[in-house]
């Protein structure tokens, strides 16, 4: 029997399975998909996520991947720049854009070197198995069964494991409905290399050059209404109303190459409980994060670091207590980050959908810009660094590089 079955090979599940197997525990890692080349997983690694990877001894692995540092953050109102803040904003490390597919593939390659790890790709978990009140394993789509002392549900925001366990999700702010577009690279060199939020003409959106050199565009649907039916050119024109030049001109000129819109529904919430006898939920399965200010991967990695530390030290009969301790240790940081994300989202929606406020900010931007920047920046330190003291003090694995040091 496995000590652990980890369901889902996203950032939470892969990094957890790797750490547990390294610590000498038999782990089965089950992933519904056969490849990692999905969109909408985000590429931004904040300093707090980089810290978690460094503490897992994975600095070399991150350094070896194609990536680029984010240049900074800016907010635009009615196509005028309200403020712009360069990275790294006082941190030791800038926010880095690392293609998540490559990060996951590299983590998997590392995990497969561990003899105690069994990899089950292309196998969706269909239900949980119980022995009385205790969850004791999972049943797979191919009717195979895996038994474990502890099942760890890392299966993302729509978590089947969470639903099967009957754990309710408490809503934390309004979920988001996002239309995602991509314009493939290469892009001209005169574009802003940062992440920009755009509030204009009753619309809210963002633009960023992704880790692979593509332009990523996210259009927020107000109140989750239906997806507007527009031709690619009409979408290009709509984006050009929201974006400043030169990116507006680019999107209008190359509208025919726009990929999307692809609608992404993002619930934001917190599981009422992260654990049951024989079960622990982690990452988005425990607390689906809003995409606002790129927290989800980073929180998932920090969950996994804490969970690996507590679970790997526990005897089999102590695993439930260790699972409860994981929730207790991680909850304050998650609640804080979700509150900050919610405040940021509400502010954006208020400005984006209030023409008078937008006009005031746009016209008074010379005076109001620095004030708005101070309000915005006050939230950014915890969103980048995480909560002080949220991670265990000790390192789990020796670090072989000084490239990311903490
Ligand atoms: C548009 C968008 C952009 C984002 N950008 C960023 C960003 O830049 N930075 C950031 O930090 N966060 C970002 N996020 C959030 C981030 O993608 C998630 O919070 C993060 O991926 C959560 O990691 P996870 O490991 O918990 O879950 P996931 O990454 O969702 O992984 C879950 C895995 O479980 C598998 N799975 C699901 N069901 C089953 C099953 N029944 N059986 C087996 N396997 C299963 C899935 O295939 C998947 O591989 C963004 C989110 C969105 C929607």
Summarize the structure.
With 406 residues, this protein is an alpha+beta fold.
Write a structural description.
The protein is an alpha+beta fold and 406 residues long. It folds into 2 domains: 291 residues, FAD/NAD(P)-binding domain (3-Layer(bba) Sandwich); 91 residues. Strands 1, 2, 8, 9, 10, 11, 19 and 20 form an 8-stranded mixed sheet that branches. It has a 7-stranded mixed sheet with strand order 6-5-14-15-16-13-17. A hairpin with a 4-residue loop joins strand 10 and strand 11. Helix 10 packs across helix 11. The chain is elongated and about 65 Å long. The C terminus is likely disordered. The chain binds flavin-adenine dinucleotide (FAD). The site of flavin-adenine dinucleotide has 37 residues, from helix 1, strand 2, strand 13, strand 17 and helix 8.
Q: Write down the CATH class of the largest domain.
A: Alpha Beta
Roughly how many Å apart are the termini?
37 Å
How many distinct helices? 11
- The total number of structural domains is 2
**Structure classification:** alpha+beta
How is the quaternary structure best described? Answer: single chain
- Share in helix: 25-40%
What's the story with the biggest beta sheet?
8 strands, mixed
The residue ranges in which pLDDT falls below 50 over 5 or more consecutive positions are 396-406
Ligands, ions, cofactors? flavin-adenine dinucleotide
Please, what is the CATH homologous superfamily of the largest domain? FAD/NAD(P)-binding domain
